[in-house]
Amino acid sequence: MGLEQVIFVMITLVAFYFAYKQFSKLRANVFLGKPDATEGPTGQRWKNVLLVAFGQKKMFKRLIPAVMHLFIYVAFLFTQVELIEILIDGIFGVHRFFAPILGGLYTFIINFIEILSVLAFVATIVFLARRNLLKIPRFVKSEMTWWPKLDANLILIGELVLLIGIFTMNGADVALQKIDPEHYPDTGYLAISSTFSSFIFDGLPKGLLVTLERAGWWLHILTVYAFLNYLPKSKHLHIMFAFPNTYYAKLKPRGEMENMPEIMNEVKSMMGLAPEGEISEEIPEFGANDIFDFSWKNILGAYSCTECGRCTAECPANITGKKLSPRKILMDIRDRVTEVRNNLETGDIKYIAEEKRGEGVKLAPENYDDGKSLFDYITREELHACTTCNACVEACPILIDPLEPILKMRRYEILTESAGPAEWTPMFTAIENGGAVWQVPDDRDAWTREG
Amino acid sequence: MNVPIMADLAAEGKKPEILFWVGCAGSFDARAQKVTKSLATILNNVGVDFAILGNEESCTGDPARRAGNEFVFQMSALQNIETLNMYGVERIVTACPHCFNTLKNEYPALGGNYKVIHHSQLLQELIEAGKLKVEGGSFKGKKITYHDSCYMGRVNGEYTAPREVIEALDTDLVELKRCKTKGLCCGAGGAQMFKEDEPGEKRINMERTEEIIESGASIVAANCPFCLTMLQDGVTAKDKEEEIMVYDLAELIVQNNNW
Questions:
Q1: Given pLDDT bands bounded at 50, 70 and 90, which one contains residue A296?
Q2: Do residues A81 and A109 make contact, with C-beta atoms less than 8 angstroms apart?
Q3: Which ranges of chain B have pLDDT less than 50?
């Protein structure tokens, strides 16, 4: 086994090990949320995965970014073939393992990847320009602070590095095929590399070409490993989470808010419609004031968000200058989950809720209390600005529901805290006492007696 | 006006084909009452066998639920379901998209299962079946635009029936800049109707009114009592109440047919 192989295998193992650790942590983070059964037809769920995640159906509401995104996405998908080859070559110390096996098909695949890569390169430059030069409104909203901006740019620059790696590798390879056909199997004519390679690489000394080919190869694979370990910290995670998120997306009617059986049953027994239930000693908490009260699917959604801001761009409250931004709600949930996880990892007993402390009690999600909540991230003003118009739900290209967390937090505010906008109280009272949203005389059919 | 009450019919041992769910706005709000009367007029003229609950109707609970007050929602909703089930109601028509949504999508989980239809859908059905004739009326060639209510549009996916009703009046239907799936909210949903706006640059209904003015239409048609209020407020605030009329679909039909 050559030294390069040994180094490659070691780096690969390390990269996968750290990625595995991080993704396991992500999984645990998602399940900090409450259990939530997955109901409804599985067929419909797979259809959503195929059409919405795989097929990018909802992206095409905005044509230009959709086409640009498609270039990068399809290039990413097909480059996996080349990536598998890199892995095989790296582990077994061979060169272009698939080339002699696949023959003409290999030439076709690599050509396909090369053309897509050029398109992806152009798209990436366009995306950098849209963010940094054109400053498309949804990319420069107030929640797009230094990290979300840097994150987006790092991803795009990373993509450029990946593509530079591929083209350096292929270009030098094509030149080497002419000098040393024994070690460099024929890839056939490559649309980009064969055409441009001659200008840059032909005539260079063999030693330099070999170095360039290796440099391109290593640059590509190391960037891939860097991405793999960067994903769990980045909005770019959507390239993976979009798939489970579309699968688990709610299939019930959009207009159906989650029922609260505990309240329904209590009201039923109050009205004499059901036998009285047992009265619990504990003061019940309703709604959500922290990530633990959300469904794990809400947290999955927050992690799936790539901060594209289509939801915020369609939000009537945001359009008219209110503080609410559906994207920020998702980013806040994700950031709060990260904070909780970091605190949990310290194992510090100061994060155990006071009433649950005791000898031998270890810090766990069940006893966690850091004195903070999601209300430290999301203000009431934001929650109160929502019209429940579902524009954000409609806009999300990967079926994230930013509305459900908002409504769960409203429930906490009203039901658990007995707080909320004071102007709502007369409406509640009117419904409760008079059965109408306004204080009006009990005369619903008065209009029938008018002209 | 001849509007049968459910309890009276039940006393006679009768049951109407369809219940007209009037809603709070339709019952008490002066502007929405006109829509209620228009729809009752249409139902009477077409000969639809209907009744209302009258004082036995309560708020569906929609604004309470969306504000976060599940207790109040459940109390009102369970009361309504008791009443509806007692009368054995099977079909319901309502002129309010919020009532429509709650009755159709939220009552089943509480034990209330009905076939619910919005009046824009019923009107479209009646026109298509030839039961409601609307040809050659005063709106012929008039530039009319349609404002999608969130709860019929995005929430329940109904974009075509209201448009077909408007087109049946031989009008020149023009679309707003943001329409159908991208339709802009009037600003009233999610219990916003019952509170002041949060601080911002402008009111949502003003943003929407600007689009209506831009469309050049002389009439904006809506299908929701809260949209009607918000749009009328916007048009008035822009001093356009002489040039732009805000109507519900039912009102357009009644005017068209001189009923």
A1: very high
A2: yes
A3: none
Contacts of B67 in chain A (CB under 8 A): 410, 414, 420-421, 424, 427-428
Q: Do A387 and B150 touch (CB under 8 A)?
A: yes
Residues A72 and A149 in one domain: yes
> Which of A164, A163, A152 lies closest to A128 in space, CA to CA?
A152
Question: Quick one: CATH architecture of B133-256?
Answer: 3-Layer(aba) Sandwich (3.40)
Would you state the pLDDT for residue B89? 98
Beta carbons of A428 and B156 less than 8 Å apart: no
B106 and A257 within 8 Å at the Cβ level: the answer is yes
- Domain containing A203 equals 62-247
A286, A411, A445: best to mutate for the B interface, most B CBs within 10 A: A445
CA distance A398 to A234: 17
Q: Which CATH number goes with the domain that contains A291? A: 1.10.1060
Residues A347 and A397 grouped into a single domain: yes
End-to-end CA distance of chain A: 97
Q: Is A381 on the interface with B (CB under 8 A)?
A: yes
**Which chain A residue shows the shortest CA-CA distance from B74?**
A264
Question: Rg of chain A's alpha carbons, rounded to an integer?
Answer: 28
Residue B145, φ and ψ in degrees, nearest 5: -115, 160
**Taking all residues of chain A, what is their mean pLDDT, rounded to a whole number?**
95
Start-end of CATH 3.40.50.1860 domains in chain B? 6-123
Residue of B nearest to A324 (CA): B198
| Domains in chain A, number | 2
Q: Which of these, B57, B54, B48, lies nearest to B16 by C-alpha position?
A: B48
Contact A436, B28 (CB under 8 A): yes
Q: Count how many residues are written for chain A.
A: 451
Report the alpha-carbon distance of residue A151 to residue B55 in Å, rounded: 59
CA distances from A30 to A33, A275, A291, A309, A357 (A): 6, 37, 9, 22, 25
CB B35 within 8 A of CB B120: no
A253 lies in a domain?
A: no
pLDDT value at residue B135: 79
- Amino acid occupying residue A119: L
How far is A257 from A405, CA to CA, in rounded Å?
11
Specify the residue for token string 């995965």: A49
Domain B6-123 has CATH 3.50.40.10: no
Instruction: Tell if the CB–CB gap between B181 and A424 is shorter than 8 Å.
Output: no
Residue A252 lies in a domain: no
Q: What is the mean pLDDT of chain B?
A: 97
Specify whether A179 is located in the same domain as A92. yes
Same domain, yes or no, for A191 and A291? no
Angle at A279 between CA A274 and CA A280, to 5 degrees: 135
Q: Tell me phi and psi for residue A15, to 5 degrees.
A: -60, -45
Between helices A238-248 and A296-304, what is the axis angle to 10°? 140
Let me know whether A138 and A229 are in one domain. yes
A205-263 pLDDT, tens digit per residue, is: 999 999 999 999 999 999 999 999 999 999 999 999 999 999 999 999 999 999 999 99
In this prediction, residue A278 has a pLDDT band, given cuts at 50, 70 and 90, of: low
- Backbone angles phi and psi of A446, in degrees to 5: -55, -35
Q: Is residue A178 part of a domain?
A: yes
pLDDT tens figures, B97-113: 999 999 999 999 999 99
Q: pLDDT-based confidence at A277, cuts 50/70/90?
A: low
- For chain B, the straight-line distance linking the first and the last C-alpha, in angstroms and rounded, comes to 13
